[in-house]
Design brief:
The complex is a heterodimer of chains A (109) and B (114).
Chain A lengths: L2 E5 L2 E5 L4 E8 L5 E7 L6 E6 L5 E4 L2 E5 L3 E6 L8 E8 L6 E2 L3 E6 L1
Parallel strand pairs in A: 2-11
Antiparallel strand pairs in A: 1-3, 3-8, 4-5, 4-9, 6-7, 7-8, 9-10, 9-11
Chain B lengths: L4 E3 L2 E4 L5 E6 L6 E8 L3 E9 L2 E5 L6 E5 L5 E5 L8 E8 L9 E2 L3 E5 L1
Parallel strand pairs in B: 2-11
Antiparallel strand pairs in B: 1-3, 3-8, 4-5, 4-9, 5-6, 7-8, 9-10, 9-11
The chains are: A mainly beta (109), B mainly beta (114).
Chain lengths: 109, 114
């Protein structure tokens, strides 16, 4: 069965302190890996789609990378407004995404 | 372009009642998926519709059902509500999930069952 594990569950950083979030997956025939950001009480906001190992995508202070077993979301010099829960999801071929439990990120000013 | 809209945003029901939630996808999107989000289970897939046909269904009891209309709008229904059905119900749309699975989510409907 498809499994997606995100670590850490929660991460607290100081403003400007760079770090990485991890998403490891057990999926045969990966057809896409997705990163979303979710603010409290809101729906997930799409960030990135990665399709093949070695692929990288960037958006402002965020960069997502993909290997054959995991993906990383790197956050460079974060600001308090980057505080949110970051969700990782995989697509294998059935018409659905399988989500990890998320990493709750807090950036202190 | 307007995003995915969901109505109502908040609902309070009692056990045994039924509820209908509505979702309007992004204009031009024909695939609509529904997810249940709870603190313990995270985001769990309910079902996916395309051109009024259910193409995939998650592991939820038959009390959970849905449908899609010809204009791609979708509704989901939960009958005989239980306390454990309290959750954030999220709708997501894409052009066609098979062709491009990037989904865009609505704000969700917060259902509380008392």
């Amino acid at each position: 069965e498809d499994q997606v594990t995100q670590s850490p569950e929660a991460l607290r950083l100081q403003e400007g302190e760079s770090s990485s979030l991890n998403c490891s997956y057990t999926v045969s025939g990966l057809r896409g890996l997705f990163w979303y950001r979710q603010d409290p009480g809101k729906g997930p906001e799409f960030l990135f789609t990665l399709y093949s190992a070695g692929e990288e995508k960037e958006k402002e202070r965020l960069k997502a990378t993909l290997t054959k077993k995991e993906s990383f979301l790197h956050i460079t010099a974060p600001k308090p407004e980057d505080s949110a829960t970051y969700l990782c999801a995989v697509h294998r071929g059935a018409q659905k995404l399988v989500f990890g439990q998320g990493t709750r990120l807090t950036i202190n000013p | 372009k307007a995003g995915v809209t969901q109505t109502p945003r908040y609902l309070i029901k009692t056990r045994g009642q039924q509820v209908t939630l509505s979702c309007s996808p992004i204009s031009g999107h024909r695939s609509v998926s529904w997810y249940q989000q709870t603190p313990g289970q995270g985001l769990q897939f309910l079902f996916e519709y395309f051109s009024e046909t259910q193409r995939n269904k998650g592991n939820f009891p038959g009390r959970f059902s849905g449908r899609q209309f010809s204009n791609s709008r979708s509704e989901m229904n939960v009958s005989t509500l239980e306390l454990g059905d309290s959750a954030l119900y999220l709708c997501a749309s894409s052009l066609d999930f098979r062709a491009g699975p990037t989904q865009y989510f609505g704000p969700g409907t917060r259902l509380t069952v008392l």
